[in-house]
Design goal:
This protein is 49% helix and 12% strand. The chain has 356 residues and is of the alpha/beta class.
Amino acid sequence: MGPHPAVAAVRHAVRRSLASLSPDDLVLVACSGGPDSLALAAAAAFEAPRAGLRAGGIIVDHGLQPGSAELAVRVAAALTGLGLDPVLLTAVAVPGPEPDGNGSYPGPEGAARAARYAALDDAAVSAHATAVLLGHTLDDQAETVLLGLARGSGARSLAGMAERHGKYLRPLLELRRAQTRAACAALGLEPWDDPQNQDPAFARVRVRHQLMLALESALGPGTAEALARTARLLRADADVLDDLAAAEAARILAADSASAGWPTAALSILPAAIRHRILRAAALDAGCPPGALAERHISSLDELVVDWHGQRWTDLPGGVRCQRRYGRLLFTTAEVPGVASSAGGASRSEEPGGRE
């Protein structure tokens, strides 16, 4: 007999995701101990050696709940038992809002996410890992699309999470959460259920347990799959627009390399979809935290370009200010007043999903 269908589905997804890697590459599985990442870890432990790869694990302890350190040790032991090596454990400090309230705090979920990805980045570098596997599922993708829609965040946010973004791989984006839980049960693994995943104080929890159920009740089954399909289609469109914006940004800077900042005349004649992407990338390059940079900030930058009536600046998250001076946009920071950033390029941003 072959493996349980859920186990086979998770293994197949991981096998397909690992196919792009080279023999002897090290992949790390980011594991919280929840059913999604635990099933992913088991599949990676099975598939990686068969592909000539090495598989390890990384556990990030956010320290946000009592007993989190002990839980992290238990998860590390489980990963070692699956055969993953090395198994890394790192603790992070999740910052709270700044006392000055400068508007750059992305909220507790965003702050935890930023701390987690910084720790994963550091772990990948220190372990010389080629890739980091994340356990986001189709359900997480659908929730991300709904959250982006509610926030009015634009096409890039609605495009959800990519199967591959830099070193990060998400093999399970076409699988349902029920499948990962079934895989754990079939393998005799005991996942940890994060109590925060039942706390309605978090927007993602309300989407998961209230909004998704209401949509499926009103529209019928298949809503999550339809939302994930929408994300996949929008991502293809958004990728093309990002590439076009990057090319335009490079052209503008090359044609005007002698001066700092961005010439408003060159920006104003671009289609809004391209111009907004260039402005977002410029703001990020100037130091704006990605999680705090919202559409209203990009709109205020755009007004300096196409609806200027004397306003001289707009303040952005992270202590960044953009001024219009002599027909140019100049980005400055509170730390170095008066020093403009002319960095350009239109980079693609991620809107990672929530925890398991």
